[in-house]
Amino acid sequence: MAAKNAMNKPLTYKSAGHDLDRSDAIIARLKERLPHIGGFGGTFPFPIGRWESPVLVSGTDGVGTKVLVAIQSKKHDTLGIDLVAMVVNDLVVLGAKPLFFLDYIAAGELKPDVIDGLVGGVMAGCEQAGCQLLGGETAEMHGLYEKGHYDLAGFGVGVVERRKMIDGRSIKPRDVVIGLASSGLHSNGYTLARAVFDRAKITPGRRVKELGTTAAEALLTPTRIYVPVIMDLVKRYVIKGMANITGGGLPGNLNRVLPSNCDAEIDTASWDRPAIFSFMQERGPVAEAEMFRTFNMGIGYTLVTNEREAGRVLKRAEKLGCPAWRVGKIIKGTGNVRLA
Asked: Which pLDDT does position 22 carry in this prediction?
């Protein structure tokens, strides 16, 4: 009889796996940090008179399986920076200034401390990028995610004057390719990176002598946000084309901005590689070509300028706190990247 009565007991959202009270408490905490959120849509007052012919540029992205490293390490406060970086670094490739950003966080069970860490990272990323966090969405989806797991994605919009859009069409032979330093892996290639550390039986909390940090600290180093540097450079110098070096590495991203009659010849010995790349290549082992196809290898962003401007661009980037190198040149070709 007791079993029968239990079967007839009315179902609630909570008994099915979703605790509305916990979700409401999390939203209330977020409102303390972001008082403007809570409506059905974020609003952004567009300054109409500031541009002659404005073009809106949009982008969306996630942080891939870097999430799994954060979950295993129980460190969630830097992924939000990665999320913003992955979006705004794409927007600025066209010369667009990021205006606003929204995030989406989904989990099997929303944990207040985890959400606080993730949103705090997003706020920090938006501050670095000089854009506004309009809001976002947190979703609890019991049964879809493993216990303790979550995922996050982001969406951003920027603006650029139509006549100032940077699209690579003016690139020509003898132009110079400048590389801006990455902060590490950024947010790409983590399926391979995790496989290397797993094969080496290195847990996140273990200190790795070759890296000078724990594995978690090395793997969770936030993606560098290039917006302030790029916004400064494009105002001062002739920048013909740019590329955010993400999945696919230099060969799979710099080619996207090259004219069909040009190649980029890259000297792979012309910059300082962060130790994590050499470590993974040796401990995998991972072939050199596979490394360059998967990771940024220490160059997180590239610019193409003319010979006359190259030295100035390098000095200015360094002054702004971003190490930079002359990593290659533009030659006649068919729109490919050659590694030498």
From this structure: 72
pLDDT tens figures, 21-43: 776 777 677 767 776 766 778 88
For residues 239 and 314, the answer to whether their CB atoms sit within 8 Å is no
Distance CA 338, CA 194 (A): 28
Provide the β-strand partners of residue 244.
301
Is residue 254 assigned to a domain?
A: yes
Question: Are 160 and 197 found together in one domain?
Answer: no
Which distant-in-sequence residues (6+ apart) come within 8 Å of 90 by Cβ?
Answer: 59, 61, 244, 246
pTM over 0.90: yes
The DSSP string of 147-212 is TT-EEEEEEEEEEEEGGG---STT--TT-EEEEEEPSSSTTS-HHHHHHHHHHTT--TTSEETTTT
Q: Are residues 225 and 93 in the same domain?
A: no
Statement to judge: residues 185 and 321 lie in one domain: yes
Structural element, H or E, at residue 61 = strand 54-62
Q: What is the pLDDT of residue 13?
A: 64
When divided into structural domains, the chain yields a total of 2
Q: Coil, strand, or helix at residue 135?
A: strand
Last residue of a domain, one of 97, 129, 164: 164
Look at residue 25 in the predicted model and tell me its pLDDT: 75
Q: Could you tell me the sign of the dihedral formed by the alpha carbons of 329, 335, 339, 340, in that order?
A: negative
Domain of residue 189 covers: 176-339
Q: Are residues 274 and 323 in the same domain?
A: yes
The C-alpha atoms of residue 330 and residue 72 are separated, in whole angstroms, by 43
Q: Please indicate, yes or no, whether residues 187 and 300 belong to a single structural domain of this protein.
A: yes
271 in the same domain as 159: no
| CA 151/CA 153 separation, integer angstroms | 7
| Average pLDDT along the chain, 340 residues, taken 10 residues at a time | 62 69 71 71 85 95 96 96 98 97 94 94 97 92 91 97 96 98 97 96 94 96 98 97 97 97 97 96 96 97 97 98 98 96
* Residue 2 in tokens: 């007791």
